[in-house]
Every structure is written in C-alpha cells, then in structure tokens.
Amino acid sequence: MTFKTTHSYLQLPESCFQVCQPTPVADAQWIAFNQPLAASLALPETYWLTDEGLDLFSGNKLPEWAQPVSQAYAGHQFGHFVPQLGDGRALLLAEFSDEDGQRFDVQLKGSGPTPYSRGGDGRSPLGPVLREYLLSEYMARIGVPTTRALAAVATGESVQRETAEPGAILTRVASSHLRVGSFQFLLAKGDLDGLERLADYTVQRHYPQLQQIDDDGQRYLALLDAIIEKQAQLVTHWMSIGFIHGVMNTDNTSLSGETIDYGPCAFIDEYRADQVFSFIDKRGRYAYNQQPAILHWNMARLAECLLPLIDNHKETALQLATDLINAIPQRISAAWLERMGTKLGLNAVRAEDKSLIERLLQSFEQGQVDFTLGFYQLADELNKQTTPAALYAGCTDFSAWRDDWQQRLSHSGQPLSEAESTMRTCNVRRIPRNHQIQAVIEAAYTDGDLRPFNALHAALQDPFATAPEFDQFDQPPADPQRVTNTFCGT
C-alpha cells in the first residue's frame, strides 16, 4: 500500500467547517499506539512510536498532508435543539484509505479550542481518553461498527474539570464524522443547496450503491432508508451486549452507522431494563431500554432534514418519509429478535421466540443476574436436567424457562452441538466493566501507572477466551467496587 491522504470533506459548503490549528502541549508522552490499525491505513512507520509521531498525535507539529479543520453541526441535546454545536475540541486532519480502499477520517480529540468551543478549553482529561480507547477497540474486536483509536498521548498539562486532571489527546479514526446534526445545521441555516450537497456526499461516501438511482427524490428517500437500517442494526447490537451509549443526541448519531462519542457510556452488570449510568441523564432519557425509542426519534429528526430533497411537494415528501419512520419500531424489533435469538443458539428465529427471550430477561432482572455471564453460561445449561448453575439461583422460574428453551431447540430439529457453537461465538465472556475502567483511570491518575490499562486492554483482545491470566477481568463488581455514575469529558 502507498500512503495517501485526501480532504474530500472540504468540498462541502464553507459553512460546514472552519480551518483551525491545534494548540501545542507542554510535554507530550506516549500512552498507547494501535499498530495494527496504523498498518491497515498504511501510516508510514516514521510515525509509529517515534518523536515524529508524538509531534503529530499531540498536535505539536503537523506534517504537510494535514489540513486541520473543525466541523460544524447542530443537534438535539436531551431533546433540546441547539442550531450550532460543532467540534469544540476536535480537529479533522485528513482522510486515509485502508487496504480495501475504504476512506477513513483521522481526527485529533482534545487538541485545544476551536471556533466552536463556546468558551470551553478544547482539552480532554486523561480518563475519557483511556475509556474511549478501551471501549472503541473492544467494540471493534467483537464486530460492533465503531470509531477506532489510533493513538493516545499525554499532554503534560492539567485540565480543569471538577478538579485538576491530567490531560490527554486521542487520535480517532472513523468512516466519517458525518452525523444527523450535520444535516440539522444546514437546515437551520435554510441552506437547501448545502443540504443537497451534503446528501450527495453522504451517498458517495457511505452508500455508493444508491448512486444508480436516477430519480433524485427516490435516491434521498433511499438514503434515509439506508441510514435507518444501519442505525437499527447498530442499536440492537448494543442491546444484545448490554451496552448503554448514555448520550444518544442527534449530534452523536452517525450517518455511517458507527458507534461514536464514548462519553458517559457503560456496560450493564446485573441486568436491569431501565439502567442508567450517565450522571447527566437525570430522567433516564437514554436508559438501556429507551435506546430503540430514541433511535426512532432521532431518525424522525433526520427525515425532517431530508423532506425538501425527497419531493418538491411537502405533503408528498412528508407521507413518503412518514411511512419509513412509522416502520422503524417493527424494524428494530425484528433486528433485536434476530440478535437475541442467536444468543440463545436459535438458527431460525420465529416471532413467537420474543416471549421466550423476554421471559429470560425478566428472570435475569428478578434474580439480579449479570447480563454478560448470564448469557455466556447458558451454553452450559443446554440439555441439562439438574439444578441450574449458582448464577441463576435467584431466578425462581429459570428451570421452567430452561425446559421451554430446550424444547424449542429440540422442535427445531437443530443439533444441540450447533446451538452451543452459535452461542459460544456470539456470547462474550469478558466486557470492559465499569469498575475495571475506573480502576485503570485511578491508577493512571494516582501515580501515572499505565500497567492496569495495558493489562485490561490485553484481556479485551479475546473476549471469548477462557484464560487464567484474565480471570480477574471476567468477574462482576463486588458491592464496594460498583460504579453507578459515568461522566462526560467536557
């Protein structure tokens, strides 16, 4: 591969970005570097854990190929519309291409104030950088569409939040940083030409198969449909692994269907349908079980932006878009059913399986069963007639449910060995648990010790494996270890 960069985002209206330079830092030091990702992007090895790389990923000295800009967007934040947000602490440097020719944004996050900082310092504390590095790379490892972490560096400077915290910069890689809020920004400005250019760019960047649709309105309607499908698959994937994004604002909803912005996110320990971790989500708007409804709401906001492009007649455009929006709950339900059924080893999920899945989740909640281990250990309960494992001891109806599950599998004619194989490959043993991440952050804050970070990162590289050296990372928190609140880094 030959390393090359492009800057296609700059073809959008000038209102969509502002040129901005990173603010130099005092004493940049390496925290982590993602060598496999760097290799796939053909990043020259002159940047791999070198002084030149440290200059690049700290923003202290950018190479000629970097053309840093901060991106503009709007967004509904907890349901309240803000017509201009934008990258308040991030800079898009360039676009790289991987070995398959797919283009990716490379962005510094925490590199100093931008024209969109709204009085903020544009910096990031070390804790959120460590969290995003661990979680985004874990999600990539288990096949969840996500942004990636290319590098993390310490700045040698303090960042003031509730207290003074050490600063850091994350280099983030994404299929793009386009989001629902990108469209909302142009709609709020009344820039219909800009809306069309952004829609065409989104098609070209992420949905090139739609370019063969000659009718403009039908193409933009198909774009809405394609984004809805990507988001439905993404959010149901989150649900199937017990992940709570924590801040599903429209400015955090990507058009590529990737998980973006790992702020106050968390994985569930013991299952509770209405679980919330984000300290700022006081009313549970983005609780675990509310994520499908919020996705529905966010896609309706995207549809509003595309109405002028779908048809010149407002009533016609509204009807066409409404038909797609009204069908979202059914699409989400079907995607959720497929993913959750697979976790039970079912090779052909049926509509009536929904009751079986919901009964298990209710049993988990009643028995305070750990979501991850509860599904992981189910494979050991296949064709078992004896007392269930101790993990399920608090579930009063688990034995009856297990009988019904086994009967369902036997009636399908599916070999139990096949069901077990399916379950072993989709139910993880290990997740980045909140208390473990907190321990990593505390060690890094207390004495600059990154060994816990490196150990957890290593354990998460194979989340299905049974390995004695990783046993400590498989366990749910004891009561004194529980983390009930997570925080954003801004």
Could you walk me through the main structural features you see in this protein, from its secondary elements to its overall organization?
The protein is of the alpha+beta class and 490 residues long. The protein has 15 helices and 13 strands. The strands form 4 sheets. Strands 1, 3, 7, 8, 9, 10 and 11 form a 7-stranded antiparallel beta sheet that branches. A hairpin with a 3-residue loop joins strand 10 (148-160) and strand 11. The model has no long low-confidence stretch (mean pLDDT 96).
What's a quick, concise take on this entry?
By secondary structure, the chain is α+β, with helices and mostly antiparallel strands.
Radius of gyration in whole Å, from Cα? 23 Å
Structural class: alpha+beta
Whole-number count of domains: 3
Shape: globular
Oligomer: single chain
SSE blueprint and pairings:
Blueprint: E1 5-6, E2 17-19, E3 29-33, H1 35-40, H2 51-58, E4 69-71, E5 75-77, E6 80-82, E7 90-97, E8 103-109, E9 124-125, H3 126-141, E10 148-160, E11 164-174, H4 180-188, H5 192-206, H6 216-240, E12 243-244, E13 266-267, H7 291-310, H8 314-326, H9 328-343, H10 353-367, H11 371-376, H12 398-411, H13 416-426, H14 434-447, H15 451-459
Antiparallel strand pairs: 1-7, 2-4, 3-10, 5-6, 7-8, 8-11, 9-11, 10-11, 12-13
Structural features:
13 strands; 490 residues; globular; two-stranded antiparallel sheet; seven-stranded antiparallel β-sheet
